[in-house]
Amino acid sequence: MSTEVVVGVRTEQRERTRTALLDAAERLFAEQGYAAVGLPAVVAAAGVTKGALYHQFDGKAAVFAAVLERVQDRVGERVAEAADAEPGRWEQLLAGCLAFLDASTGPATARIMLVDGPAVLGWQAWRELDERASGRHLAEALAGLIEVGELAPQPVEPLARLLSGAMNELAVWLAGSADRTDSADSADRAAARAVLERTLAGLRT
Q1: Which residues contact 187 (CB under 8 A, 6 or more apart)?
Q2: What is the DSSP letter of 177?
Q3: What CA–CA distance (Å, rounded) separates 53 from 46?
């Protein structure tokens, strides 16, 4: 077997191990929360050895950071897909914001991304991940609307941070009431979407 083949096989094995670890860790973090999950449980759920975990990550916080990045990337993809499906810039902004709200408020996603994420990584590191995943889409959309005159000229970064913070808080509120009935949850989601739509509409020139 050639050196190139051996290297390729080992790389593939490492990727499979990493995926198994992240799949298991994401499920456990979502179900139990970061504080309640130990690495032995992650290793057992993934079906790998403890040594294999430490070959990939230097500890529990590193595992969580990788899980969080993966979750945020999925949310960012949902935002981009929703925005890209719309023809106009304003419709793209609205669709992207609503997609963020929908994608981030599932209990598992919200627990990892909005509750444990800032606490485990620290605000600055969490904010950088959020910016890279979905925050940049918001900033780009706002900049485009200012450019074509649909929003008044203003600094993009503070506006993007204001809207991002508001949507994160709205998502936490929606995800935080697990004991709501289905009808109450639907009503709250409809109210949240309406508030978001009115807030965005108020920014138009």
Answers
A1: none
A2: -
A3: 10
Structural domains in the chain, sorted by start: 1-57 (1.10.10), 60-202 (1.10.357.10)
Query: Reduced to 3 states, what is the DSSP secondary structure of residue 151?
Result: strand
pLDDT at 53: 94
Q: Two tokens at 10?
A: 């080992």
Cα–Cα separations (whole angstroms), residue 138 to 6, 33, 135, 188: 44, 28, 5, 23
Q: In whole angstroms, what is the distance from residue 125 CA to residue 132 CA?
A: 11
In the chain, the percentage of residues whose pLDDT exceeds 70 is 93
Residue 76, H or E segment:
helix 60-84
* % of the chain surpassing 90 pLDDT: 69
- Say if CB 48 and CB 21 are below 8 A apart: yes
Query: Which pLDDT tens digit goes with each residue over 33-48?
Result: 999 999 999 999 999 9
Beta-bridged to residue 204, according to DSSP, are 151
Cα-atom radius of gyration of the chain, to the nearest Å? Answer: 20
**What is the three-class DSSP state of 75?**
helix
